[in-house]
Amino acid sequence: AQSVTQLDSHVSVSEGTPVLLRCNYSSSYSPSLFWYVQHPNKGLQLLLKYTSAATLVKGINGFEAEFKKSETSFHLTKPSAHMSDAAEYFCVVSDRSDYKLSFGAGTTVTVRA
Amino acid sequence: NAGVTQTPKFQVLKTGQSMTLQCAQDMNHNSMYWYRQDPGMGLRLIYYSASEGTTDKGEVPNGYNVSRLNKREFSLRLESAAPSQTSVYFCASSPGQGSSLDTEAFFGQGTRLTVV
């Protein structure tokens, strides 16, 4: 079975400053890893995904994440936060043990003007 | 291209009432999922269907039943609703077993259920 731990429940940043959202995973197989974003009262949108190709993954809206197998981490970053980045972010893992998607508890991002 | 369609979007039930949440996908995906979302707990898997004709329990299956009617449709039933089932419910689909993992899951827009 696989699992995900998001290390921060809330992150607050000023507009224009970097954003870092931390995610650690556990998987017995080579995992696929995803970051999803959910804006208030909306559904989930894929930001980016890691699927055993390049370890540095670029996604939409300037986000990127780096897969580090030795640290079992998949942290999400953005160099410069925008007000529209205020949302909840979920790290998700899937692997070939059962193809289920396991979600982290989520990180809520607030952006200060 | 509709993707994953859930109905209804909102529902209020009285304790003890039953209802079925409907979900359909048009992407020919093998796997379908039902999740519930509660504040501070992320999305928790209720039930999962790896392929047509199979279903498996997730983390929080108590009080729910599911039916994988065909490859497109996966419904979630609450037989006797309880206030603890007040939540936002999401259906999702993915290519799943027999395919590469290199494709993400697609989610419906959610059903906001309140049990009073």
Structure notes:
- The complex is a heterodimer of chains A (113) and B (116).
- The N and C termini of chain A lie far apart (41 Å).
- Chain A has 113 residues and is mainly beta.
- Chain A has strands at 3-6, 10-14, 19-21, 23-26, 32-38, 44-50, 56-58, 64-68, 73-78, 87-94, 101-103, 107-112.
- In chain A, 0% of the residues lie in helices and 54% in strands.
- Chain B is mainly β and 116 residues long.
- Chain B has no helices and eleven strands.
- In chain B, strands 2, 4, 5, 6, 9, 10 and 11 form a seven-stranded mixed sheet that branches. Chain B has a four-stranded antiparallel sheet with strand order 1-3-8-7, with no helix packed on it.
- Chain B is globular, with a radius of gyration of 14 Å.
- The N and C termini of chain B lie far apart (36 Å).
- The model of chain B has no long low-confidence stretch (mean pLDDT 91).
- The chains are: A mainly beta (113), B mainly beta (116).
- At the A-B interface, strand 5, strand 6, strand 10 and strand 11 of A face strand 4, strand 5 and strand 9 of B.
Can you summarize this structure?
Chain A is 0% helix and 54% strand.
Mean pLDDT of chain A: 91
Q: Biggest β-sheet of chain A: count, sense, barrel?
A: 6 strands, mixed
Mean pLDDT of chain B: 91
Judged by helices, strands and strand pairing, the structural class of chain A is mainly beta
SSE string of chain B: EEEEEEEEEEE
List keywords for this structure.
heterodimer; A: 113 residues; mainly beta; 6-stranded mixed sheet; 4-stranded antiparallel sheet; 54% strand; B: 116 residues; 7-stranded mixed sheet
List the helices and strands and how they pair.
The complex is a heterodimer of chains A (113) and B (116).
Chain A: E1 3-6, E2 10-14, E3 19-21, E4 23-26, E5 32-38, E6 44-50, E7 56-58, E8 64-68, E9 73-78, E10 87-94, E11 101-103, E12 107-112
Parallel strand pairs in A: 2-12
Antiparallel strand pairs in A: 1-4, 3-9, 5-6, 5-10, 7-8, 8-9, 10-11, 10-12
Chain B: E1 4-7, E2 10-13, E3 19-25, E4 31-37, E5 43-49, E6 56-57, E7 64-68, E8 74-78, E9 87-94, E10 106-107, E11 111-115
Parallel strand pairs in B: 2-11
Antiparallel strand pairs in B: 1-3, 3-8, 4-5, 4-9, 5-6, 7-8, 9-10, 9-11
